[in-house]
Each structure stands twice: as C-alpha cells, then as structure tokens.
Amino acid sequence: LQVPRTPTQPPGGSESRRFANKHSKKALKASLTLGILLGMFFVAWLPFFVTNVTQAVCGCVPAGFFDVLTWLGYCNSTMNPIIYPLFMRDFKRAMGRYLPCCRRAGEPRPSAISLSMRNSNSGPRAPTSLKNVL
C-alpha cells in the first residue's frame, strides 16, 4: 500500500521559507548578543554581590578583594560599547554616523544644527490654540 506524496511547501513557498530563515537568523543573532551581554554581566557582577552579602553576614572579606570585585563590575560597563558594535549592525551604523573616527570617507558629516533640531523636537509647528487642542 503506497500513500501518495504531497508537497510539504505550497507553490511560492521558497520565498516564505527565505523570509522565515532571514528572521530566524536575526533572532538567533539577537539571542546570541543578549546571551553574551547577560553572561558578561553575571560574570562581572555576581562575585561582587555574593561578596557583598558575605561581608554583611560575617565581615571577613578583605577590603582589597572587595575593591577588585567592584572594579571587575566597572569593567563590564566598559565592555558594553565594545560588544554592541561587534554584534549589532544598526548600532555600528549609528556610531559611524556620529563619531568622526568611525565614519566612512564618502559619508557626509551631520551638522550640529540638524542634530539639535532632531533631538529637541523643535522646528516648524502649526500654531496651536486652545480651540485647536480641544
């Protein structure tokens, strides 16, 4: 007895499969970045917090060791700006736009006025009155 085979993908399924693969790759990369960031956070700060609780309970932690663990946590904060550009293309593009050391040769430099206008929500606005608002 043979069962007839039916195609598993409808016609045009290759495009939807490509779309799904593209998004699954992005999700995998985002998960990897988040895992690295959280892993580094725990490696850097967990010893500090455990030592802090130990110090509160028994008071037996040397001050120098406590300082080293505090600075380990601070080092984690300096690693974030390094990790983000390595794994996130959008972050890398944004940094390249605003930092002169990371800008490509052909890219125009944003002016200070355009940046302040964009960030301050100022600019041409329609006149408003109480009647228009209500």
Automatic annotation (TrEMBL):
Membrane topology of the entry: Multi-pass membrane protein
Keywords linked to the UniProt accession: Cell membrane, G-protein coupled receptor, Membrane, Receptor, Transducer, Transmembrane, Transmembrane helix
GO biological process assignments: adenylate cyclase-activating adrenergic receptor signaling pathway; positive regulation of MAPK cascade
UniProt region (Disordered), positions on chain: 1-20, 112-134
Recorded name of the encoding gene: Htr6
Cleaved signal peptide residues: none
Molecular function, one GO term: G protein-coupled receptor activity
Main location: membrane
Lineage of producing organism: Eukaryota, Metazoa, Chordata, Craniata, Vertebrata
Highest taxon listed in the record's lineage: Eukaryota
Membrane-spanning parts: 27-48, 68-87
Biased composition (Polar residues): 113-134
This protein's name: 5HT6R protein
Cellular component aspect of the GO annotation: plasma membrane
Keyword DNA repair attributed: no
InterPro entries named in the record: GPCR_Rhodpsn (IPR000276), GPCR_Rhodpsn_7TM (IPR017452)
Subcellular location: Cell membrane
Domain (G-protein coupled receptors family 1 profile) ranges: 1-84
